[in-house]
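User: Show me a protein chain along with its predicted structure.
Assistant: Here is one chain, sequence first, then structure tokens.
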Amino acid sequence: MSRPWTEAEVRLLGTKPDYEIGRLVGRPGKTVWAKRQALGIAALSPLVRRWTEEEDQVVLSKPPSEAAKLLNRTEEAVIIRRNKLRRRLSPEQTVRLLSPEEAKLRIEVPRYDSKEQEEKMRFVGGPYAPPLVPIGGWLKCELRGMVQVGGYSNGLIP
């Protein structure tokens, strides 16, 4: 049977996280949680501070560094909130994933730095297909001897 709660202990409920109050008053955190729930006292949310309408107006009207100082928040948090608010205000401008064909058209990667490199990388007797060996299997390499297959890629073969 546990000892009764004192007035001072009850006043502490909801002012700090349950586990911390438990350490202060010498009770398990679960017991503190149960008492707080039974009395209908809301839990303290120390890690998250909700955004208010006034803060949202500041975020949208000021530069991120200035808004962060005014709101006592990090600049990164202000930037994230600003982006979220802008997406909510203009949903037609949401980010759309590219199809593989669109991505291929947008990506332009130079394959070779010089003609010498192109000649060095030229396929002989290609196109090639990967060997019928699973990842983790073993292959014989002319240069290295027996090597274990670590994975496959679409990279160039020298």
